[in-house]
Amino acid sequence: MMDGKPVLDHNKLFEDEKYVQQRERKRQFENGCPEEEVLQTAAYTRSREYADKNFQRQAVVINPAKACQPLGAVMAALGFEKTLPFVHGSQGCTAYFRSHLARHFKEPVPAVSSSMTEDGAVFGGMRNLIDGLETSLALYKPAMIAMSTTCMAEVIGDDLSAFIGNARKEGALPEDLPVPFANTPSFSGSHINGYDHMLKAILSYLYDQADAQTQAGLSEKLNVLLGFEPYTGNFDELKRILEQFGAEYTVLGDHSENFDSGAEGTYTYYYGGTPLDAVPKAAEARGTLALQKYSLRKTITYMEEAWEQRVQSMYTPLGIGATDRLLEAMGAMTGLPIPQSLLTERARAVDAFTDSHNYLHGKRVAMAGDPDLLLGLIEFCLELGMEPIHIVCSNGDAEFEQEARLLLDRSPYGSEAKVHVGRDLWHLRSLLFDEPVELAIGSSHLKYAAKEAGVPLLRVGFPIFDRHHLQRYPIIGYQGALNLLTMFVNTVLEQLDQQAPAHSFDLVR
Questions:
Q1: pTM beyond cutoff 0.85
Q2: Quick check: is 381 catalytic?
Q3: pLDDT per position as a tens digit, 345-377
Q4: Residue 393 annotated among the catalytic residues of the structure
Q5: Among the options 151, 365, 381, 437, which is catalytic?
Q6: Which entry of 58, 217, 264, 448 is 20 to 30 Å from 26 by CA?
Q7: C-alpha to C-alpha distances, 405 to 268, 293, 399, nearest whole angstrom
């Protein structure tokens, strides 16, 4: 209540007569199409004729299931202690990255920009960059600045290495302050590539800058990489699993606290993160476990070649079989046995799958997302007897497509699946009308197509803007399998209740 009046959600607020009239006046002023024509056009876009045209589309992208490279670079930077992400480009781009991450995690996102404008696009952005570095140090006092680029800086060819060197010569940047940088043009790749490029840049910079004494000495620790991870709960779950093993570990790129800080009455720019001095020591670890092989390609190659380290990589471990392989890899790399407590968790997950599989078995699903997540979701669905029909990966490639196809072909429930690489959510919209499914899985951007097609949306992945706190719940491991199962089966049960006639509105399911 405010001043004795209820505060209305916009669903109710804009039903008020004054807003109804306002919309009608606006429509008349803009000479908008008649409502009948709008409805006819909408109906046409759901037809087979339109689908054929949509499937042939090449030159236009509509609602891709991906973000741009610098967004991923910002996330990678926030995985290290007292590190300030610095985006060399326009202020509007940086605002987009910050708002996108803030709307998903419901947390403020510290990141700065060189704020290039039209003159920078003509004459270069070195002055903006140097002034920005000087201001950032004075205001935010970071221990490291991690720099990435946007389209503008990449198109005009700004040389970050030279610019950072000039900043040091001018005294705007101390000689000993680490400033790793990565070229992350928004017009190529996606957020997972930007994450990968920035993470590799940070690891290689800190390793190269460390002295021999810091690097020396073999370690019994295990390195862990989670990749572009939109679930802070997955960090907690992985740490919990490793601690049950009794394993020593270092998470390289731990952004979980920066995106899940508490309300303690004061705000700081930096929460948690991998200690900077842990990176050179990580090169001497017994090995590395990478949980997103497609979003960590360059980083994995760097660690194998420069650090000569054994890297065990996999796609996001969702479900029972994938978690089995995760624990087996942990056991093999640490030399430790799988603890009984985790075997007990596995038994509970298997029991839960058995309890609920009859409501999910045979359900036809469509899904969209990043390569590692999609492979995990495919395996999870197949374990439950669900049938993936449409799989759209805007930032996938031929390797992903082949791996997805092999995974689908191993199960009779994957026989009807089609993998669409490089396609967008407008493509998936036509698929939902052309070959209907019963469930859709993906980010909040998929909600419009799912609503039009009349299917429930299971919100999994990035970004999730329209639901709260899902990022806090793990989806990896046996506990994550239970969380996904709970979401999936209860969505189906809720739909059954909504559609149930009086005689089937059951108390027990």
A1: yes
A2: no
A3: 999 999 999 999 999 999 999 999 999 999 999
A4: no
A5: 151
A6: 448
A7: 46, 17, 10
